[in-house]
Amino acid sequence: MDKSVLCREPGPGGVRYRMLDTLRQYGLERLRRTVGEEEAVRRRQRDRMLRRVEDCERGWFGPGQPETVARLRADRDNLRAALDFSLSTPGEERAGLRLAGTLWFYWHACGAPREGLYWLDRALAASPEPTRERARGLWVAGLLAAATQDFPRGHRQATDALALARALGDTAEAAHAEYVIGVIRLFGDDLPGALRHFETTVARGPVPGQHLSLVGLDQVELACALGFLGEADRAVEVCEQALRLCERHGEQWVRSYVLRILALAHTVRRDWPRAERHAREALRLKHAVHDIIGIALTLDLLASIAGERGAHQHAALLMGGADRVWADIDTGRWGAHTLNSVRRDSEERACGALGRDAFERAHRRGGGLGLAELVGQALQEPARPRPGDSPAPHDDTTVRLTRRESEVARLVAEGLANQQIADRLVIARRTAEGHVERILSKLGFSNRSQIAAWVTARR
Asked: What is the DSSP string of 71-82?
């Protein structure tokens, strides 16, 4: 470091070191002087990245997801180098497919579906053998293809993955492929078919080896189908079951989708304050992991809620921001009738209240915001209540939590379960449970997600 051979930078998970491009190139030239040495070093680097990614996947359904995302984003060039080496070196293709498939949660949850699809296309073409890695690569590619406009291709690849997984006797990869098939039905407007599909998978329960994120997402999509079909009470019941799963593991990403569907269910009930609280908390969690698709979906929902509550200027701004976010995914919102009809209804309502010129100005303002600014606007702008709206179940001017209760409330907002809170504060689990119950009672809430939204709002 004193000689500037290495540069030291603080980074996610600790200090990171890098070399200047000229020094790295010099090092590569030295490696190439010995036959096979560069390949051996690149293989070791690839294996190291594969171990890191597999560790991240194992821990993904749990606390620390934003930190995991930050570490992987910091390692993007290392991951690209590992993938490129694997897919351009004879005999290493299967390892490349394994790496690309294991990163499914990063490609899908963290705003990189197009890059993921690029690597998976290369990996599947380079490794056509009927292996477990190929079964996984097919359903991941199908999911990412569907997320980036191509439903027919997504369905075809997921169906191929299901057939291969069943032929291999791999029940976990078969269950993962079934999830993709179901979600394509859901957003392809086959709501009755999607409902039957997810009723079956949720009733079956998890299979050995199935990733808990996809177990939770099965429940999310079942609740989503119920919400779209107007069955709000059943949707809420399924969401509460999914929230319990997330809370036991301190999980946040799937939880964000559960909260979004709870918001959807409360829009069906026309309980706009509660719907808005859940949707805002969902957006906060999605922004923490850079879930672009989830952010776009939630902004659409918040815009609709704002319009229903009479905050038409705010609704127009959120629509402008949502349209800009969707532009990176699919401006047609995958052609889904349900999503597009909600968007059209929101625009007609706002235009009718504001006039076309005022709507366009607010829409342009929203479209010009950066992602962080846009999310900040969505989380902080109060929607003007309409006559007949039920009041919020708490009053921030009168509620007083003790110091310990405030600590517990903050940990609940981080997604920690009661045992994790007890461990963090070095108290008994029953003591932690008692604090949570008193917080719920003081605030007039019925579940932990409301505590999390309250903490976020006070911040």
From this structure: HHHHTHHHHHHH
Instruction: Evaluate whether 352 touches 412 at the Cβ level (below 8 Å).
Output: no
Identify the segments of the chain with pLDDT beneath 70: 381-399, 441, 444, 446-447, 457-459
434 vs 100: CA distance, rounded Å: 45
pLDDT digits (tens, 9 = 90+) for 224-246: 999 999 999 999 999 999 999 99
Q: What pLDDT sits at residue 399?
A: 54
Q: Taking a C-beta distance cutoff of 8 angstroms, is the pair 319, 350 a contact? A: yes
DSSP structural state of residue 403: H
Distance CA 243, CA 297 (A): 19
Residues whose CB falls within 8 Å of the CB of residue 149, separated by 6 or more in sequence, listed in order: 329, 330, 332, 334
First-to-last alpha carbon distance for the chain, in angstroms, is: 40
The three-point CA angle 203-171-48 to 5° equals: 120
Contact present, 302 and 280 (Cβ < 8 Å): yes
What pTM was estimated for this model as a whole? 0.79
Distance of CA 401 to the CA centre of its chain: 31
**C-alpha angle with apex 181: 112 to 244, nearest 5 degrees?**
75
**Average pLDDT over the chain, rounded to whole?**
90
**Could you read off the pLDDT of 81-134 as tens digits, one per residue?**
999 999 999 999 999 999 999 999 999 999 889 899 999 999 999 999 999 999
d(CA 296, CA 116): 19
Q: Of the candidates 210, 222, 86, which has an alpha carbon nearest to the alpha carbon of residue 136?
A: 210
Is 109 exposed, middle or buried, given 0-12, 13-18 or 19+ CB atoms closer than 10 A? Answer: buried
Contact by Cβ (8 Å): 430, 264:
no
Please name the helix (run of DSSP H) or strand (run of DSSP E) that holds residue 258, with its range, or none.
helix 253-268
pLDDT by residue (tens digit) across 27-47?
999 999 998 899 999 999 999
Count CA atoms within 13 Å of residue 366 on its CB side. Answer: 29
pLDDT at 1: 86
Q: How far apart are CA 247 and CA 227, in angstroms?
A: 22
CB proximity list for 48: less than 8 A, separation 6 or greater: none
The closest of 46, 52, 81, 82 to 68, measured between CA atoms, is 52
